[in-house]
Amino acid sequence: MTANDxxxxxxxxxxxxxxxxRTVVENYLKEMNVPAKYADxxxxxxxxxxxxxxxxxxxxxxxxxxxxxxxxxxxRCDKRTDVEKAMWEExxxxxxxxxxxxxxxxxxxxxxxxxxxxxxxxxxxxKLSLEAYLKMFTEQK
Length: 141
Description:
Number of domains: 2
Largest sheet: none
Structural class: mainly alpha
Oligomer: single chain
Number of helices: 7
Distance between the termini: 35 Å
């Protein structure tokens, strides 16, 4: 609401209006399967500021996937073994200069698998997007 809109309201009306807005936003985000913490983040900053999502937040959540699709996407695209996943977690933050020759070789092999996984996920998401688009615009109402 603008300052002019707020001036015309009582304190109770302003609070009720803000609560109503928050409820609408929270319901929308919930419908879109966005974790509830993001609504809290949005409403924790002044209305004229933006709270950017950092890589730690992004990586702690399903990295942009709808939670219901995360397991499906992993089963479809992640060909790494559990051991390879654990090794990747250890090596992905290391700079090549910090790695032994063996670690560098393993990192290079695992990086190839991660690139293949990213490509598979990108293709799967493109296909899902196309299917959703066609369904939305070709279904009879």
